[in-house]
């Protein structure tokens, strides 16, 4: 997903229009859509963020990496905010599921290797003549 969001920069400059791109579990932002080829101004792994929505402003969402960074964002409309929330939530769930599947596969693989090694060890011990 990609599109325009307002990003809070500071009290001097306030809300600034930025082009955001969500791809492969990474949310990146650029000064504009035309600047995408020049490199992003910042990015964050979706798996690391916590998402909060404003009860007062139906276009606002706050993304935070605990103890590190906060991104205060506004969508052009409540409907677009909802699209971003769904996309971010889906990306976060996908990354979490993929990680869990990899860890599960590694656990199964390690258990299989251990079982094979133990069986070979037992077979070896039976054939050893003392």
TrEMBL record:
Compartment(s) where it occurs, according to its Swiss-Prot or TrEMBL record: Golgi apparatus, trans-Golgi network membrane; Membrane
Record keyword Transmembrane helix present: no
Main localization, broad class: Golgi
Alphabetized UniProt keyword annotations: Golgi apparatus, Membrane, Phosphoprotein
Membrane-topology annotation of the record: Peripheral membrane protein
GO biological process: endosome organization; receptor recycling; retrograde transport, endosome to Golgi
PH domain segment(s): 1-93
Name of this protein: Pleckstrin homology domain-containing family A member 3
Annotated organism of origin: Lygus hesperus
Annotated gene: PLEKHA3
């Amino acid at each position: 997903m990609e599109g325009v969001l307002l990003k809070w920069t500071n009290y001097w400059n306030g809300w600034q229009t930025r082009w955001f791109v969500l791809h492969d579990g990474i949310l990146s932002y650029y000064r504009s859509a035309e600047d995408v080829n020049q490199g992003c101004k910042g990015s964050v792994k979706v798996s690391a963020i916590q998402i909060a929505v404003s009860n007062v402003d139906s276009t606002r969402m706050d993304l935070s990496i605990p103890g590190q960074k906060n991104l205060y964002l506004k969508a052009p409309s409540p409907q677009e905010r909802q699209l971003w929330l769904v996309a971010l939530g889906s990306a976060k769930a996908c990354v979490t599921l993929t990680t869990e599947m990899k860890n599960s596969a590694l656990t199964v693989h390690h258990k299989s290797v251990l079982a094979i090694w133990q069986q070979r060890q037992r077979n070896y011990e039976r054939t050893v003549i003392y």
